[in-house]
Amino acid sequence: MSDQNTLNALQELIDIVAKLRSPHGGCPWDLEQTPQTLIPYIIEEAYETVTAIQSGDREAIAAELGDLLLQVVLQAQIAQEYEQFTLAEVARGISEKLIRRHPHVFGDLEVESVREVNQNWEEIKAAEKGETVAEAQLLSRKLDRYSRTLPPLTASLKMSKKAASMGFEWDKIEDVWGKFQEELGEFQEALASEDKEHQQAELGDLLFTVINIARWYDLDPSQALQGTNQRFVQRLQKMENFADRPLTQYSLAELDRLWERAKIHLAQQE
Questions:
Q1: Is the predicted pLDDT of residue 1 greater than 80, yes or no?
Q2: Which has the least CB within 10 A, 8, 71, 243, 269?
Q3: Does residue 61 lie within any of the structural domains?
Q4: Domain that includes residue 86, residue range
């Protein structure tokens, strides 16, 4: 596709979104949306895009990238309506940032390794925020950014890795398992109380320890849980295929038998 065709296609999308948001003949659902109500869709489309990329299906990737692009255009359209910023400002802002953070590409700076590129990137980013490199490298600041901006499982794994790289680490895996047993006991004790806040806190501590165990074994907890979710759905679908009536009409014992049958059948297909 030529550059002009690309620009035409983007402009068509911008015009369509503007029409959907128009008070005169627009879509009632789109008109009700706010930046806040659209947050779940941004997250959902980002995850669906990742899934498509992992599948390697080019058509699915293109489709999901389109859905994700729609969320960007829609957010910018709403912001423009409230005279906050425009899509042009969004594009210009990221272009300026890329140029500013790549002086070895768009300027005269010479680098010899990826390590130097990363070092320059961190220095420029710190300067943009009015911080020294030392301030920007503070462990607490990095971990706080992870905790505020990433999904919990991903954030916990990155926080655990970063803390370990700074020396905040157990000596051996047996110590991590010991921590797991400690946290499990504290969680069980919390469940015996009626303090929901305390129960939540202890559950969080237990999950964080499990994530640390995953890190020690070089496992990705997000991928592990995603795989479990997918297997659960596959087994449920197989149960429904085997069933001769709605699952709600089966007893627990019958459901257990269907579940085991589904597991065996799926294992034989692998």
A1: no
A2: 269
A3: yes
A4: 3-99
